[in-house]
Amino acid sequence: MSSEADQNNNRNNNCMIISNEFNKNTIDTATTFSPPNSRQHLAVVSNSSSSSRPPSPPPARTVGPPGSSTALRTKEPEPPVFEKGIAGEISANFGQMVQIIFIKPLRIKVAVEPSNIIKVATFLRDNLGFDHAESVAGTDYPKEDQIEVIYHLGSYSREDLAGQVLSIATRTNRDDARLPTLINIYKSVEYHERETFEMLGVYFEGHPRNERFLLPEDWADIPPLRKEFRIKGR
Amino acid sequence: MIKDLINPTHFNILVSKLGDTLVKALDKPLGFAINWGRIWSLWPVHLETACCSVEFGAASGPRYDVERFGIIEAFGSLRQCDLIVVQGTVTRKMAPRLRMVYDQMPDPKYVIAMGACAITGGLYVDSYNVLPGVDGIIPVDVYVPGCPPRPETLIQGTMLLQEKIKVSKIR
Amino acid sequence: MEDLEDRINESQKMGMQIIKESDDDRLMTLSVGPQHPGSGHFRFVVKLDGDYIVHCDPDPGYVHRGEEKMTEYRNFIQNIPHLERPVIHDSTNITYSYSLAVEELTGIEVPRRGQFIRAIASELNRQVYTLYWLAIYGIFLGHSTMFMWPTGDRELFIDLLEALTGARVTHAFNIPGGVRNDVPNGFKDRCLRQISYYEKRLKEYEDIFYNNPLVRQRTEGVGILTKEDAIRLGVTGSVLRASGVPYDIRKAEPYDVYNEIDFKVQYMKTADSFARAYVPFLDMRESCHILRQLLDKMPEAGEVRAKLQANPRGPPGEAYRRVESGRGSLGYYIISDGTPKPYRVKISVGSFRNMLALPHLLVGAKMGDMPVIYWALNYWPVEADR
Questions:
Q1: Would you tell me which residues 343-382 of chain C have a C-beta closer than 8 angstroms to some C-beta of chain A?
Q2: From CA C244, how far away is CA C172, in angstroms rounded?
Q3: B105 to chain C: which residues are within 8 Å by CB?
Q4: Please, are residues A156 and C240 in contact by the beta-carbon 8 Å criterion?
Q5: Rg (CA), chain C
Q6: Is the dihedral of CA A195, A201, A205, A209 positive or negative?
Q7: In angstroms, what separates the C-alpha of A134 from chain C's closest C-alpha?
Q8: For residues B17 and B147, what is the distance between their CA atoms, to the nearest angstrom?
Q9: Most buried of A114, A185, C206, C363 (most Cβ within 10 A)?
Q10: Domains of chain C, earliest start first
Q11: Contact, C324 vs C344, CB < 8 A?
């Protein structure tokens, strides 16, 4: 998890320069609970600033994530209130088992150990109202010898959670990649987990069919999305 | 002499010589007629390989009407078709099926490779699942370039195929 | 006997159509394969008991070109041409979502006029895609007029897009930072004329197709997907809205200028195949209203894109942005590690998510209802395979 903290470090350093002008806008709009408003302030800012100054090269500043926080730091701009409430409920229930990676308007990321993921997912479905999983993405980090699998959860039944996407991330070893499946909680991950199995080699315990899905039947190579699989000619 | 003619060997030779002259006399007009029939009724197999199938579908629409060339999408079996248009990228999973479909079509059959991906692999030449061109597995008659080719380009490709069929010998 | 079983499985995998009797001698296995008029570039294996389907197993991957792996070898702008090929006739939507995610990662701002042009191109493309889908749906129901009319009408929209972007399909028009070029002269009048003509045509479509007694008989009551099932299976787009859930990304999470546009989310509650075929039609009508408002509110002059940089890059981070395309919500999850090339791009397409409804709906249906159910799911195989 160290690279995550480093990433947050870089992002926070770039955010602090503009945090003051954001606070003026976020305090007005983020107190209302409907998600479209919290996106609206981003549109307002970009409209006004496009006429006042030309866009400068990106590494100097970032406009996108106005609020990000880890569980430990307190000096960043205030994350949006509604999302903070959700994240607060999760950490209140699970304490040390989860780690909140970031809280942005409409996006929350939570990191969980593989052994706790089923409890956390059941809590999210039953108590918080996230009723389906949009997609499952696996990423290969050879430098840390880990594979991260991230589930994006959304909600169709609750109006106030309409645009929210909560991501749960777990990590496992590259050599013997095994994770518990979430198919009994969210049926919509069935084909996504199967695809992650064949593309990255992560075995989902409990999934009825850990088989080849999109690749040809005579595929005899390592899983293609691993970083050591190089495309020919590059 | 009549006794000579109805001698079996001589009769056979006479009949064969008669047959030869008949075929030589009729070869040109018969060939022309058969080729004319083939040109104006090319029926494509309904095998969509990848994204160029959208432009093939647009070519069957009212603006770029390929039905006036006789190309009707025959929704029957592929035993009645004589043209296979490889529309787009051929992946390694699709390649054996393409070869099987080509083998099942009766003679004479023609192949149009449509799109840059079917000719050389196109934009996806460095992907792990894409065949670099389809002429490694089936013999191609006409290459239609473009990504995707406009329907007019496809029609020009068909007309080139028609020219090719016109000068080919009937079998 | 095992030898025979193995050989039969081998040849099944090769897509041939063979008959395999099971133990109780009743079930027949059919492979609705890639060379089939009714299946597109997709294969699914069904087991039949008489005329009823008892088991269905989809087998995608015939157009799997490895898009996600290829994005890691090209920088953010070079990724646009090959990322728009999964749905070539809806290409502005699939690159719209990518541009939004990259802009969040790199911090590029899009000028206001550029946002409006992006939204206009997106709505025009939605019409083009939905008309093609309607054409395919009509012809596989046997209604060949419904193939010719939408294919002809969509040529008029393609003319507009060709005037705007330069290409019929695969426009490569959206880039991170805006759009490539400005609209030509007289575009707004041409667009408004086309929309008024098109609204009259939509009435004719309704008369000839949606009020056609044969079509109604074939599609009403077939393939019911209840609201709880739709939410549980995580379907998206018109399939979800036909089951009674009024969810549209343009309303739930408005991107660009959609928070200034006033429109209603179209949904139906009957949840059968007719509803799934009717909701895109209602969407098209609503899209005409949206287009009129967009053309009205577009600022008269201004920049259309941020200054183009050769190698845009941003700090390490990740972004997940979604857009409502013709098939449903199209999401991009991009992880960047500070270099100009993305570290990982995951595309979450509506077709792949809707594929889960296919075995659920086909089991228990008759084989003759298979095209009705399958094509109403708004499934584009090239996109699902990426």
A1: 343-344, 346, 348, 352-353, 355-356
A2: 35
A3: none
A4: yes
A5: 22
A6: positive
A7: 7
A8: 55
A9: A185
A10: 64-315 (1.10.645.10)
A11: no
Whole-complex ipTM: 0.84
Order of strands across the sheet with C52-59? C27-32, C43-49, C52-59
Chain B, nearest residue to A215 by Cα: B93
The verdict on pTM exceeding 0.90 is no
Cβ contact, residue pair A216, B93, below 8 Å: yes
Determine which of C64, C71, C89, C159 to mutate to test the interface with B (most B C-beta atoms within 10 Å).
Answer: C64
- pLDDT tens digits for chain A (234 residues)? 444 444 444 444 433 333 333 333 333 333 333 333 334 333 333 333 333 333 333 333 333 343 333 334 444 556 677 777 777 888 888 778 888 888 888 888 888 888 888 888 888 888 888 888 888 998 988 888 888 899 998 888 888 888 888 888 898 888 888 888 888 888 888 889 898 888 888 888 888 888 888 888 888 888 888 888 887 765
Q: Are C88 and C170 in contact (CB under 8 A)?
A: yes
Provide the token pair at A155: 């909600």
Domains of chain A listed by start with CATH number: 2-205 (3.30.460.80)
What does the alpha-carbon distance between residue C342 and residue B16 come to, in Å, rounded to a whole number?
A: 75
Residue type, C136: I
Strand A203-205, strand A178-180: pairing = parallel
Substitution target from B47, B48, B130, B152 for chain C, most C beta carbons within 10 A: B48
Q: Which residue of C has its CA nearest to A13?
A: C315
Tokens of A190: 């069935």
Taking contacts as CB-CB distances below 8 angstroms, the residues of chain C near A199 are: 68
